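Sequence, structure tokens reproduced for reference:
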Amino acid sequence: MKFLIFTCVGVVNLLSLGSGKTIYKSDGSRRTFQEIKEEIASYKDVAKEIIDLAVYGKFQNRSYERLALLVDTVGPRMSGTRNLEKAIQIMYRNLQDDGLENVHLEPVRVSHWERGSESAVMLTPRVHRMAILGLGGSIGTPPDGITAGVLVVASFDELQRRASEARGKIVVYNQPYISYAKTVQYRVRGAVEAAKVGALASLIRSVASFSIYSPHTGMQQYQDGVPKIPTACITVEDAEMLSRMASRGNKIVIQLKMEAKNYPGTDSYNTVAEIVGSKYPEQVVLVSGHLDSWDVGQGAIDDGSGAFISWEALSLIKALGLRPKRTLRLVLWTAEEQGALGASQYYQLHKVNISNYSLVMESDSGLFLPTGLQFTGSEKARSIMEEVMSLLQPLNITQVFRGADGADINFWIQAGVPDLCCACSKSSSVTSALLLLRRWQMLSSHELVSL
């Protein structure tokens, strides 16, 4: 496997914060789009140098090997655990050894949840042990578990229509998969909506387009004033089976046992490194991914790949001897899976300097074949971005999609800072992939586009 990684981010100076402004040359005269287009095209050779080093040269597969070493050595990196803190310390040393600047750790207060042992057994109409994964932050059951009849529904609307049947039951959601963004609401809100109608627990169908008898985990949210009930994920196969049984009128009884516990918060860190800008060091381009993961896998895809791609971006820039005019800042977030806790606290700490943030980038949508970038900004800025992406034609990674967002950068997006993510095939998104071309950084800070 190769990571297709390119350095970040040369176009950011054209994407500085502003509204309704015209693009200007440093001498104050207007810059036409044609002039910008010609300037971008002139960097073809530099783009080739970056591509050759990252994809075909001596750094081919480097980020893959770096990531493999971390996940093989450390394993899962759950918020509040020693594994995560070990990974943070390893990355702190790695970034120093890589020669990046201002490598430091910024303290973050994070949550600590442990799933413990868990099981779900269908007792009626036959005995069947089900695969489950408790959802993040869930409470546990009593030691003897919860044994109750089952109500199967396909939507929140159906749950409301059948609210009188839900009291004292275990609600099973067999929601159809539409898209992750739409269907994940059942993971997030399932327990709360079931508790509102008197359910004792809730089980959700795995939020996935296909299954090999594989439940998934993720964060769920309780609501003030609503009783907290245990909640877990079951497989697509079991959810469909329970739905078929219910449609025939079969009585279904499940025994659910969960030892999940929430512990007091603990200390962790965001991991930060930079390449300091030579002319405007106070102005920041932020490149990021999260270092934490869930406890039932190594976190190689979510989001080890995004974190290491972001590191590799700065690492390649340094290796090529490029010195941007503005500071490139790498942030490896902590506790993203528990509600973007690291990113939230970073934003609160740094938002006083928000006008200095030119662009925020995040990679946290899986690692597949890249085809382009997702972008949020004005149509003028989009036109410029399309020209930038044309430099990746040798790799056929040129598309500019709409609607970039990310859990860790949404705080900045909502405040008006432009953002980039990366897109791959129809089903997924992947690595950030903008080129840092040295001479683009010569633009002065007042050269703005409408955003």
